[in-house]
């Protein structure tokens, strides 16, 4: 697999799945000074309260997962394990080699993401 460099000084971090885990990571990233909230984005699936939670500390919430992928360099899949496959397939056309994919879903390995993209 060919690897493209991620710009460490300007990369943007996106979350697919605006749940509790994503919020915890995003808050940690901001509080530790790794990234400002302006460089973090997500999309709320069906629950506006999740959008509110992210917007409350400055994270941009887009209408669609596709918008998150298009505007992110590093993409963390933070949906439930049984949703990962469908989410990856939905986004597959946008997942170029320039995007670094990460999964925090229990039991989903990097290999699983690679074979689906
Ligand atoms: N919580 C933890 O302590 C923990 C620890 C380690 C690993 N993890 C892993 O982290 C992942 C997320 O866990 P969580 O506790 O954060 O769960 P969660 O709070 O239920 O978050 C999952 C989010 O994904 C959204 N979602 C569902 N289908 C989607 C889709 N097709 N596209 C985009 N978003 C979608 C859900 O939105 P709706 O509710 O609106 O459907 C929900 O906001 C899991 O795979 C879990 O194994 C969690």
Automatic annotation (TrEMBL):
Q: For this chain's UniProt record, which GO biological process terms are given?
A: L-proline biosynthetic process
Q: Where is the Pyrroline-5-carboxylate reductase catalytic N-terminal domain?
A: 12-107
Which keywords label this protein? Oxidoreductase
Q: Which domain of life is it from?
A: Eukaryota
Pfam families per record: F420_oxidored (PF03807)
InterPro entries cross-referenced by the UniProt entry: NAD(P)-bd_dom_sf, P5C_Rdtase_cat_N
Q: Does the keyword DNA-binding apply?
A: no
Q: Which GO terms describe its molecular function?
A: pyrroline-5-carboxylate reductase activity
Q: Which PANTHER family match?
A: PYRROLINE-5-CARBOXYLATE REDUCTASE (PTHR11645), PYRROLINE-5-CARBOXYLATE REDUCTASE 3 (PTHR11645:SF0)
- Family statement: Belongs to the pyrroline-5-carboxylate reductase family.
The protein's name is: Pyrroline-5-carboxylate reductase
What species was this sequence derived from? Quillaja saponaria (Soap bark tree)
The taxonomy runs: Eukaryota, Viridiplantae, Streptophyta, Embryophyta, Tracheophyta
């Amino acid at each position: 697999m060919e690897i493209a460099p991620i710009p460490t000084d300007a990369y943007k971090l996106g979350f697919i799945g605006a749940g509790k885990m994503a919020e915890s990571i995003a808050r940690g990233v901001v509080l530790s000074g790794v990234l400002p909230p302006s460089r973090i984005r997500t999309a709320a699936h069906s629950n506006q309260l999740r959008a509110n939670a992210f917007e409350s500390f400055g994270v941009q919430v887009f209408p669609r997962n596709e918008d998150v992928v298009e505007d992110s360099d590093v993409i963390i899949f933070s949906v439930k394990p049984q949703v990962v496959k469908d989410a990856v397939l939905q986004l597959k056309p946008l997942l170029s080699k320039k995007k670094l994919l990460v999964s925090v879903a229990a039991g989903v390995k990097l290999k699983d993401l690679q074979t689906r993209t």
